[in-house]
Amino acid sequence: MKRALVGLLVVSMFVLAACGGSQAPGTSTGPGSSSSSSSSSSSSSGSGSGSGSAEKVIKIGLIAPLTGNVKTFGESSKMGFELALEQAGYKAGDFKVEAVSGDDKGDSTEGVNIATRMITQDGVKAIIGSVTSGVTIPVGIVANENKIPMITGTATAEGVTVNDDGSRKPFVFRACFIDPFQGQVAAKFALNDLGVKTAAVFYDKGNPYTVGLAESFRAEFEAGGGQIVAWESYSQDDTDFSAVMTNVAALKPDMLYLPDYYNKVSLLAKAAKDKGLDVPMLGGDGWDSTDLDFGTLDGNYFTAHYSADDPSPAVQKFVKDFEAKYGTKPDSFAALTYDATNIMLEAIRIAGTDDTDKIRQAIQDLKGFQAVGGSISFDEKGNPIKAATILQVKADKTYGFVTTVNP
């Protein structure tokens, strides 16, 4: 996202009114996001806000797209968030946890409005989210400026935890790997496992997530001896890819790299098949949705954060618990938000206070935290050091585990 746009969004947080939002269990009522009490302070004495009882209370906000074009990402994330809180008994150390949730609708301005309201009106001391990089980057700026620790489960763009000049946003973390790593893993898999020599790349020029994956894939693919024969951009509102696929088909690439979200990838894949481009397709974690066109993308691959088929005890316990509560297998958005929530709860427990700077430091200092996505420690930029997984799409709306790639 351009610096000017980010600046405009940050300024807008002071003038835009709040609206919308939904609640997680344990939440009291209120307009938009919810809270029975409020605080405008970014840190406090450690006693927490309360409702008249001696019990210490800390409020944690969830920001996710619960409606809009990527609502399945938000719905899964909310389920992971709620499961983690429920299993913790809505407790973090000596604190009772109150959840405050808001629907950013996949829109960055909406996300900034919600973050501002949660911090200045609801009195949250920590934020989980958002989900996509385009929303999480400006939301992270708000959290960082207000010294509220925030951890996204799934936003993979580099700019989530660092500013344009490379400096750190010390209060912002993530539970997922970053785009450069995801693109590098995809390129290595294409060269070494698929054995392809040429590739065509399609990306949304206005989305930092898809741009980041595309650029890191190109760099690694070319460094490994591959050739990019088509480098095609489009806009978020584009839906007709017939003409561009006709041109790309004439170049006869060995594969297509489609690093976008499930709805756009489904359109691109169908357009490719319609033009006779029956070659392997590869993408990123944005494919991970129940609304993906599984029939069209059957047999193709994407980089992911975990597999429900991973036999590790931590994964299998999480899958079992999730299925018992929701009746469906968790996707990576649920798993990563579950991990992000548990990381925040652990940091609050270790800090033993709702002082937001001490909670931030506790996250930074975590070593070998046992998450569903693997053992997590954080580097100097707030990124976890962990492995990536390759999954294969199946027509029966499942994913097959292919391999794991370590950093």
TrEMBL record:
SUPFAM superfamilies: Periplasmic binding protein-like I. Pfam families: Peripla_BP_6. Transmembrane segments: none annotated. InterPro entries: BCAA_transport, Leu-bd, Peripla_BP_I. The keyword Translocase does not apply. Keywords: Signal. Residues 24-50 are annotated as: Disordered. CDD domains: PBP1_ABC_LivK_ligand_binding-like. Residues 58-396 form the Leucine-binding protein domain. Residues 1-17 form the signal peptide. Residues 24-46 have a biased composition (Low complexity). It comes from the Bacteria. Belongs to the leucine-binding protein family. PANTHER family: LEUCINE-SPECIFIC-BINDING PROTEIN, PERIPLASMIC BINDING PROTEIN OF ABC TRANSPORTER FOR NATURAL AMINO ACIDS. This is Branched-chain amino acid transport system substrate-binding protein. It comes from Symbiobacterium terraclitae.
